[in-house]
Design goal:
D-Maltodextrin-Binding Protein, domain 2, five-stranded mixed beta sheet, alpha/beta, about 250 residues
């Protein structure tokens, strides 16, 4: 009798261990990002790895939520289109939360606030902000909210780019008169090219960045939001700001 009881207890213990082990297995999540947007997400030339503010953030959230991440690097416009089709589980790439995008995908709580600015060549004194861009050629990243802002301006010519790196290179080479982008990326390019570029005027919008989640994955959204709240309480956003954004 005692032997049978002992066997039963051992069996229950093994079942408990197995159940705990299964419950601790990380959930695999495909995370789309556009790794051409420094300092939020870009390729480190020395390591070949995707790095940046957003990458550090989603890794910290994944650790809190027991998620195993697989990054997928994709251009920004296809990223949004693929998220609308549920091709990826989630996406992080300085994605502004908009009412239009919320129709196609879920969004986490905001984690960062940015704003659109105008960047011009340093020797350009005629452009002082968004109100005197009439007759100018403006570079934007296709699919971005910056492109939406410029499309509402009268009398401008829009030049679309797959990524902002190409847009800012063309600005420095005189192909376009200005680039409209989030201030976060503009500051990064101006800091790297202080003798060639300057920001004209103040930010003229407010852009709230959020983590996009496929529309049929409400449970994943809840885990991401829980992880985001946890890392916010620990001061991670402030630490990442100090680490990644130009002073």
């Amino acid at each position: 009798m005692k032997r049978s009881l002992l066997l039963v207890l051992i069996w229950l213990l093994l079942v408990s261990i197995m159940a705990t082990s299964c419950s601790q297995q990380a959930t695999k999540v495909r995370v789309a990002t556009n790794a051409t947007y420094p300092p939020f997400t870009y390729i480190d030339e020395q390591t070949g790895q995707i790095v940046g503010f957003d990458i550090d953030l989603i890794k910290a959230i994944a650790q809190k939520g027991n998620l195993e991440i697989e990054f997928v690097d994709v251009a920004f416009k296809p990223l949004l289109e693929d998220m609308a089709q549920g091709k990826y589980d989630t996406a992080i790439s300085a994605i502004s939360i908009t009412e239009g995008r919320k129709k196609d995908m879920l969004f986490s709580d905001p984690y960062f606030v940015a704003g659109h600015v105008v960047t011009v060549r340093k020797d350009n004194t005629s452009i002082t902000g968004k109100d005197n861009l009439v007759g100018k050629v403006i570079g934007v990243e296709i699919g971005s909210t910056s492109a939406d802002s410029v499309s509402e301006m009268a009398g401008v010519t829009i030049k679309d780019y797959v990524d902002y790196g190409s847009a800012f290179n063309d600005l420095m080479n005189g192909v376009v008169d200005a680039v409209v982008s989030d201030n976060t990326i503009a500051v990064n390019y101006v800091t790297e090219n202080p003798d060639k570029l300057r920001i004209a005027g103040e930010p003229f919008t407010q852009e709230y960045y959020g983590i996009a989640v496929a529309k049929n994955k409400a449970e994943l959204l809840a885990r991401i939001n829980a992880g985001l709240k946890a890392v916010k309480r620990e001061g991670l956003i402030e630490k990442l700001t100090q680490k990644w954004l130009p002073k």
